[in-house]
Amino acid sequence: MKIVLAEKVSPATLAVFQKEAGWQIVSPDQIKNGLAAELADADALVVRSAVQADAALLAHAPKLRVIGRAGVGVDNIDTDAATHQGIVVMNTPGANAVAVAELTIGLMIAMGRSIPRANATMHAGKWDKKTLQGQELRGKTLGIVGLGRIGLEVARRAHAFGMNLIGYDPFIAPVIARENNVTLVDIDTIFKESDYLTLHVGLTTQTEGLINAHSIGIMKKGIRIVNCARGELIVDEALAEGIKSGKVGGAALDVFRQEPLKESVYYGLENVLLSPHIGGSTDEAQEAIGIQLAMQVRDYLKLGVVQNAVNVPSLSREEYEEVAPYVEMAERLGSFLSHAAPGNLENIQLTYSGRLAAGKTDLIKNAALCGILSGEEGVNRINSATIAAERGIRIQEDKKEFTTGGAGSVLKLTLHAAEGDTSASATVLHGTSPRLLTYDGIDIEAPLHGTLVAIRNHDVPGVVGRIGTILGEQSVNIANFALGRAISTRSGRVPQGQALAVVQIDVPTAAVANAAVEALRKVEAIASVRLVELPKA
Prior knowledge:
Elements: E1 2-5, H1 11-18, E2 24-26, H2 35-38, E3 44-47, H3 55-58, E4 66-69, H4 79-84, E5 88-90, H5 97-112, H6 115-123, E6 141-145, H7 149-160, E7 164-168, H8 174-179, E8 182-184, H9 187-193, E9 196-199, H10 213-217, E10 223-227, H11 236-245, E11 248-253, E12 272-274, H12 283-303, H13 317-337, E13 345-354, H14 355-358, H15 362-372, H16 384-390, E14 394-400, E15 409-417, E16 420-429, E17 433-439, E18 442-447, E19 451-458, H17 463-473, E20 477-485, E21 498-506, H18 510-521, E22 526-533
Parallel strand pairs: 1-2, 1-3, 3-4, 4-5, 6-7, 6-9, 7-8, 9-10, 10-11, 11-12, 13-14
Antiparallel strand pairs: 13-15, 15-16, 16-17, 17-18, 19-21, 19-22, 20-21
Helix pairs in contact: 1-12, 5-7, 13-15
């Protein structure tokens, strides 16, 4: 593995990679011929905020599998370009939660007690005690917009100061809010009742410009606003006007629309505290961020565990270990059905049954799509859903609590085309063995590994023997032979009077396998033959 560290990291971060035998670690001072040249054979790229990992740079990185961002924001990474190339983009949310939360509380205290002005007047030789009458946090209402890791850390600290906590976050369970002494309310209530307001949400179309002329208009007179999240959450001109009018008692801003801040409507406003995006800038936070990122990148390269990814579904190590056999099974099942649809593929239906239906299935879906689209150049488990969408293929997912036939978890794939459908289902036996269960509605248990020959034939005497004879004549050994027959017209694509066979074969070369398939196709009773190459067991 080759890891390119485009920006400086801590010694502890570097040590995580250096412990891996045989890994090549390229530090910033070792990049002599430019970053693009260094990425030509790199597996991973680690950046902070200075390096722009745009489409032009990624075009020079054909082997790149993962980009790690030491921090939260990924504005400097073209995630769309990365997804198209099948590159995972990871960040490190939460590693700096305590640092940002402590700064938030510090800024609230600084505003309530006018600490910056007190310091400035003292350095100017003034003893201006009478004009520095402040307010305690105790008893004040703090509105928290966003109750993720940082928002909850703020809540815990603010509760210790005796503040009344109200919060808005549509994606948090009420029990979590209650455990942290936060009363959940709607956003307008936050604006109307807060003495202090702090923002801890990401940037979306719903949150951009959240603090604007309208929202400021319904706030309490004298409200104090803290923003350590994203500069785009605030309409700067509206906030500046609110401060000038006295409606807003103060603001403390650590983030801005354009960074570094060079021109601003806030310059010269006494009640505005400005800091240069230092929320996560503590020794402890930077160390934690670097180590967390290095471990995430390492685990993805070694184990395939996707954590804190911004462009693909993420799982914890424990979740991944549970679902991993089904991810592998899903890709094999998709490969088995690849090119089997009787026409142009229009829709893919994934049906999860049993325990699978109760868990996270995004990676299973991506793996299945990867298998189905395996003929497309550059497709992998990261970009398969994107490529399917680009091809105009609709994806439908259904979940059923129970299974039939005794299997604990079953995935069924159905490929819909204008000319008809084809389907197959599979499970994992003994935790490691992927097995085909049905093919076009017919029970036909077979292994999902190695070289398989899928055969449709007329259900007449002599076909099975003829298949065996032909394979023997071609020096092909049969490892497994699974048969199934249509017993009604409700079996799926296979009409009554036809049968299916899935034969696992041992072949010395691809040429031998192809020759055997061509010989089988000449048998009058055989309707179709497909050769499927799957990974070995």
